[in-house]
Amino acid sequence: MTTRKALIVGATGLVGGYCLQTLLNDPSYSEVTALVRKTLLVKHRKLKEAITPFDKSLERTLSTINAQDIYCCLGTTIKKAGSQEAFKKVDFSLVVKIAALMKKQGAEQFIVISAIGASKDSKVFYSRTKGEMEEALKGLEYPCLRIVRPSLLLGPRKEFRFGERMSIIMSPFWKLCLVGSLKKYKPVQAESVARFMVKVAKSQPISGIHIYESDMISNNT
Fold first, then answer.
1. What is the rounded distance in angstroms from the CA atom of residue 168 to the CA atom of residue 188?
2. CA 29 to CA 70: how far, in whole Å?
3. Is 18 exposed, middle or buried (CB count within 10 Å of its CB: 0-12, 13-18, 19+)?
4. What's the number of domains the chain is made of?
5. CATH number assigned to the domain comprising residue 193
6. Closest by CA position to 60, among listed 89, 35, 95, 32
7. Hey, which of 19, 21, 110, 181 has its CA 20 to 30 A from 73?
8. Tens-digit pLDDT profile for residues 152-184
9. pLDDT (tens digit, 9 = 90+) per residue, 5-31?
10. 206-217: per-residue pLDDT in tens?
């Protein structure tokens, strides 16, 4: 794989932070642009910042960026967003808009974090939104689309999340009970997801639609 340029969206998030560091340390990438609302505390010779409030100026900002690989680590929660509508603006509308705009810029790959159980037909709002996002991205007909569906993400967050704390406490139980076809439901480390995203982006073929379930992450990092 020749040296490439990457754009990362969501670099201040849990997975995004690890993904950014992985990209900066990877010799396969000569330049990494982070699309952010405010400047990062990270300094690196390969790092460029594209600062935008993610409003009407987004299209203008992205029109100045050229990157073959787009890493989308955007994601929020309904609680943090404040409503289902606000959640969907981030996890669906913003993701698809960025993907479409960067395809116009000549992007070859879009690597995105979705979620285990994502389905446009799901009765669960979160899973349905992720599924609708996946379907919309497929409709853009990217040269290569890679969808990563992790289970519950583990890692150091600024805010307390009860579900994650319980998963840590229950980790011995998960190891014993979540085996075979249930293995993909085991919580997964955010750092492992980030490394996996970069790894598969460099794999062949760089074409078509590829979906990676959570158990593939643990087995390939």
1. 10
2. 12
3. buried
4. 1
5. 3.40.50.720
6. 35
7. 181
8. 888 665 554 555 555 455 555 555 555 555 555
9. 999 999 999 999 999 999 999 999 999
10. 899 999 998 898
Is the pTM higher than 0.70? The answer reads: yes
Q: What is the 3-state secondary structure (H, E, C) of the chain?
A: CCCEEEEEECCCCHHHHHHHHHHHHCCCEEEEEEEECCCCCCCCCCEEEEECCCCCCHHHHHCCCCCCEEEECCCCCHHHHCCHHHHHHHHHHHHHHHHHHHHHCCCCEEEEECCCCCCCCCCCHHHHHHHHHHHHHHHCCCCEEEEEECCCEECCCCCCCHHHHHHHHCHHHHHHHCCHHHHHHCCEEHHHHHHHHHHHHCCCCCCEEEEEEHHHHHHCC
pLDDT tens digit sequence for 109-150: 999 999 999 999 999 999 999 999 999 999 999 999 999 999
What is the distance between the alpha carbons of residues 127 and 113, in angstroms, rounded to a whole number? 13
Q: Which of 212, 64, 54 is nearest to 147 (CA)?
A: 212
CA 143 – CA 111 distance, rounded (Å)? 12
- In the numeric block, which tokens belong to residue 76? 């929020």
Structure tokens at 74: 């955007």
The DSSP bridge partners found for residue 112 are 72, 147
Q: What confidence score (pLDDT) does residue 219 get? A: 61
**Structural domain boundaries, residue 29:** 4-219
Question: Peptide bond before 205: cis, by omega within 30 degrees of 0?
Answer: yes
Q: Please state, in angstroms and as integers, the Cα–Cα distance from residue 175 to each residue in 51, 158, 201, following that order.
A: 42, 27, 29
